[in-house]
Amino acid sequence: MEYIELSCNLHAEESAFAEILMARLGEMGFESFEETDEGLLAYIPAANFDPAILNSEELWPEEVEVGYSWRIVPDENWNAVWESNFEPVTIAGRCHIRAPFHPESSGMEYDIVIEPKMSFGTAHHETTSLMIEVLLETEVKGKRVLDMGSGTGVLAILAAMRGAAEVTAIDNDEWAYRNALENTERNKQPGISVYHGDAEMLHDMEFGLIIANINRNILLNDMEHYAACLEKGGKLFMSGFYQEDLEQITAKAQSLNLRYDCHRVKNNWVVACYTMV
After folding, report:
1. How far apart are CA 175 and CA 183, in angstroms?
2. What pLDDT digit, counting tens, does each position of 134-193 carry?
3. What is the CATH number of the domain that holds 131?
4. In this structure, is residue 229 part of a structural domain?
5. What is the largest CA-CA distance in the chain?
6. What percent of the chain has a predicted confidence (pLDDT) above 90?
7. Looking at the 3D structure of the chain, how many domains does it have?
8. At what angle do helices 154-161 and 126-136 cross, to 10 degrees?
9. Mean pLDDT across the stretch 103-126?
């Protein structure tokens, strides 16, 4: 399948607008995103792309002038691109995340093999590494865990490796859904239930731990669904937003009986932890 790569140029001081662009492009059918030093890369199947949507006044933030260009990315070239750039990552000296073509790291507590393709979640981004850090410090054994916006499935896989009783992974991106299925099989974690969908699927479900690494707008929109299926005393970890968004995220969480516990920051990206009271 051919994809269109849309390159949006943003200055460093305008990086906060990347999140707005991701939300708006997602509504227009773009499936995957990558933030870069120059701005934002967004991907959509070529068959679903109409260049006319780039002329929409509703797409571009009024506060900044965004330069953009687009090109066709043949599917057969994609793996070669990420393979040439993908390096193994070790988090907290305990969790090693690598591609299938990297050798296993001996003596590592958790060795996770990820083939990301077009999906988000290789632990190179600050939000994923922050999530892994807090997941490594959290008692997971015996819990029902939800990985919302699961991407490659790396967080769901780690939760399963750490002894979660049940793990559910959900992503609304079809490519990510298929990729997570492949990665759970690759890491011999057949017990992870992977679904293609969104927060509307959470009706009548209950979890002791929910991890949601998405973006501010979706977190704010879907947090009521998370709270409704989180058991009393259950934990909610959220990431995918900036430090300046923490107050708004926490205010919404507290309105849903979620107590703020702590947060940590890496390069202005935040992971925040809450408990259902």
Report:
1. 12
2. 999 999 999 999 999 998 999 999 999 999 999 999 998 888 899 899 999 999 998 899
3. 3.40.50.150
4. yes
5. 54
6. 52
7. 2
8. 10
9. 78
CB 238 within 8 A of CB 212: yes
Instruction: Name the domain boundary from 73, 105, 134.
Output: 73
Residues 262 and 145 reside in one and the same domain: yes
Q: Answer yes or no: is 220 within a domain.
A: yes
Rounded to the nearest 5 percent, the helix, strand and coil shares of the chain are 35, 30, 35
Predicted pLDDT at 221: 92
- Residues listed for the chain: 277
Q: For residue 179, which of 156, 159, 198 has the smallest C-alpha distance?
A: 156
Q: Which of 39, 56, 73 delimits the end of a domain? A: 73
What is the identity of the amino acid at 266?
Answer: K
Domain of residue 236, residue span: 126-276
Contact (CB, 8 A) for 91 and 132: yes
Query: Model confidence over 180-218: pLDDT tens digits?
Result: 999 999 999 988 999 999 999 998 899 999 999 988 888
What pTM does this model have? 0.75
Do 69 and 154 lie in a common domain? Answer: no
CA atoms within 13 A on the CB side of 73: 22
Distance, CA of 204 to CA of 202 (rounded, Å): 6
Residue 34, H or E segment: strand 32-35
The larger pLDDT score, comparing residue 69 to residue 22, is at: 69
d(CA 245, CA 262): 14
Residue type, position 227, single letter = A
For residue 237, tell me if it sits in a domain.
Answer: yes
